[in-house]
Structure to design on (434 residues):
C-alpha cells in the first residue's frame, strides 16, 4: 500500500517572521526581512546587507550570553550541545508541534523519524578549533563536536525528543533540506514511518555568510530594499540569511483520523544532477530541467496543471539565468505559463535551510489560497520573456505548486504540493496556530 504524505504542522524562525501570522503577512504584502549589517565589524567590506533574525542574540560562542524569545524554554544541559541554529530549530519544532496538535511525547518511539539539514556552525567550529590550537590540545569543550559539525541538528533533536525512527542528516549545500523533505516523503509513501519531522536550519552569523563573498556570490548593493531581486536585470548576488523551519509530515490517513489540519499534500518529487561544475549552475539549466520533469512524472502531473512555481532563484546572474532557461524548457515549450516567483527576494538565501523554508511557504500558499509575488522585480532579465512573474502577491488559490532547489555540485531537487482534497478545518486542538 502506498501512503500519501501530508503537511500538518509548520514552524518558522525566518528573517520575515518567527510565527505563522507574521510570515503569512510578509509573503502576502511582500515585506522583506533585510537590514544593514556590518560583517566582522568591518564597515569597509562591500557586503553590507543581511536577512536578519529578530528576537535572538548570539554575541559570543559562550551560550550563557545567548538570548532567545521568552516562550522558548531550554534547559542548561540541552543548551550546551546546541549551535545558534539549533536554538532556532528548537523554537521552530515547538511551533510545528503546537500547530499540528501534537506533543513532544508523540514524537517518541519508532513511528516517527527525523530528517535534518544544516551546514553545521562555522561560528562555533572556528572558536573550538582555535581554542584547541592555542592550548596545544590541552583544552577543549566536551560538547564542541556535537554542537558545531554538520550533524548537530539530528544529534540534538533526536535525543531531546526521544525519536527512535529513521534519523538522518543531509548535506547537499543549498538543496540539503529539499533532499531531507523528498526522502521523508518516501519514508511515508513506503510505509516505513507514519510521521516525519523535517528540519532545516542555519546560523545567521558572519562566519556562515561572508565566505560566499570570495565566490563573488553575495550582493554588494547596500540598499536593503533592492539588494535581493531575483530575475531582475540589475541583480548582483544573493543576500545571506539564517533561521530554521520545521515541517510535520504524516500519512494522510493518520492525519485525518486525529482531525489534523492539512496544509498540503506532497504528491511527488524529483532530483537530478548537472554533471557540470563544482559551484556554477549548468548554463542551460540541464539538471534542474530534468529534476522538474522527474517531479512532474512522479506526481502524474502535466506542466499545464502547475499553478505556481517557487523558484530557487537566489538573485545571482548565472543562477537565475540557468533556472529561467530550465523553466522555459519545461513550461513555456509545453504552452504552460504558471505564476513564478522567488521568495528569496524577501527572505534572502538560507543556504541548506532554503528548500524546507520555501516548501513551507508553498504549503501556506496552497492552504490559504494566495501566490507570493516577485518582490523587487523592476526590470526583468530579457531571458525571462514569456515567464509569468507577477509583481504583487495574488489572491489566487494554487491547486498544484512546484518548489525548486539547487545546490553546489549541481544537485537539483523539486517537490510538487497539492491543495488537500479533503481538508480538515483545524488542528487537533480545535484552532489554527497564528
Amino acid at each position: 500500500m502506498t501512503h500519501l504524505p501530508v503537511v500538518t504542522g509548520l514552524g518558522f524562525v525566518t528573517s520575515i517572521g518567527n510565527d505563522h501570522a507574521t510570515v503569512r503577512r510578509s509573503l502576502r504584502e511582500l515585506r522583506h526581512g533585510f537590514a544593514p549589517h556590518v560583517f566582522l565589524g568591518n564597515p569597509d567590506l562591500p557586503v553590507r546587507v543581511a536577512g536578519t533574525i529578530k528576537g535572538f542574540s548570539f554575541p559570543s560562542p559562550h551560550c550563557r550570553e545567548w538570548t532567545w524569545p521568552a516562550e522558548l524554554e531550554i534547559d542548561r544541559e540541552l543548551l550546551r550541545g546546541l549551535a545558534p541554529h539549533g536554538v532556532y530549530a528548537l523554537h521552530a519544532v515547538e511551533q510545528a508541534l503546537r500547530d499540528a496538535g501534537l506533543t513532544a511525547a508523540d514524537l517518541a518511539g519508532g513511528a516517527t523519524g527525523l530528517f535534518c539539514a544544516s551546514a553545521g556552525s562555522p561560528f562555533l567550529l572556528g572558536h573550538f578549533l582555535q581554542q584547541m590550537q592555542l592550548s596545544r590540545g590541552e583544552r577543549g569543550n566536551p560538547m564542541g563536536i556535537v554542537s558545531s559539525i554538520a550533524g548537530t541538528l539530528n544529534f540534538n533533536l533526536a535525543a531531546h525528543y526521544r525519536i527512535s525512527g529513521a534519523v538522518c542528516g543531509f548535506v547537499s549545500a543549498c538543496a540539503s533540506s529539499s533532499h531531507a523533505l523528498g526522502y521523508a516523503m518516501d519514508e511515508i509513501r513506503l510505509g516505513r514511518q507514519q510521521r516525519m519531522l523535517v528540519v532545516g536550519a542555519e546560523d545567521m552569523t558572519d562566519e556562515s555568510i561572508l565566505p560566499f563573498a570570495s565566490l563573488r556570490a553575495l550582493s554588494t548593493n547596500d540598499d536593503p530594499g533592492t539588494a535581493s531581486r531575483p530575475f531582475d536585470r540589475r541583480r548582483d548576488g544573493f543576500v545571506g540569511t539564517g533561521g530554521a523551519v520545521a515541517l510535520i509530515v504524516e500519512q494522510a490517513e493518520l492525519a485525518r483520523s486525529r482531525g489534523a489540519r492539512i496544509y498540503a499534500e506532497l504528491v511527488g518529487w524529483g532530483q537530478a544532477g548537472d554533471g557540470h561544475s563544482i559551484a556554477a549552475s549548468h548554463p542551460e539549466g540541464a539538471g534542474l530541467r530534468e529534476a522538474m520533469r522527474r517531479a512532474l512524472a512522479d506526481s502524474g502531473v502535466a506542466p499545464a496543471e502547475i499553478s505556481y512555481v517557487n523558484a530557487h532563484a537566489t538573485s545571482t546572474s548565472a543562477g537565475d539565468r540557468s533556472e529561467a532557461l530550465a523553466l522555459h524548457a519545461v513550461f513555456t515549450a509545453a504552452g504552460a505559463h504558471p505564476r513564478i516567483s522567488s521568495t528569496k527576494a524577501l527572505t534572502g538565501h538560507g543556504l541548506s535551510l532554503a528548500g524546507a523554508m520555501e516548501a513551507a511557504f508553498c504549503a501556506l500558499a496552497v492552504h490559504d489560497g494566495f501566490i507570493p509575488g516577485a518582490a523587487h522585480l523592476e526590470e526583468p532579465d530579457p531571458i525571462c520573456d514569456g515567464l509569468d512573474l507577477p509583481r504583487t502577491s495574488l489572491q489566487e488559490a494554487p491547486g498544484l505548486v512546484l518548489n525548486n532547489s539547487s545546490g553546489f555540485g549541481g544537485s537539483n531537487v523539486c517537490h510538487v504540493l497539492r491543495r488537500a482534497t479533503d481538508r480538515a478545518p483545524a488542528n487537533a486542538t480545535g484552532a489554527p496556530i497564528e
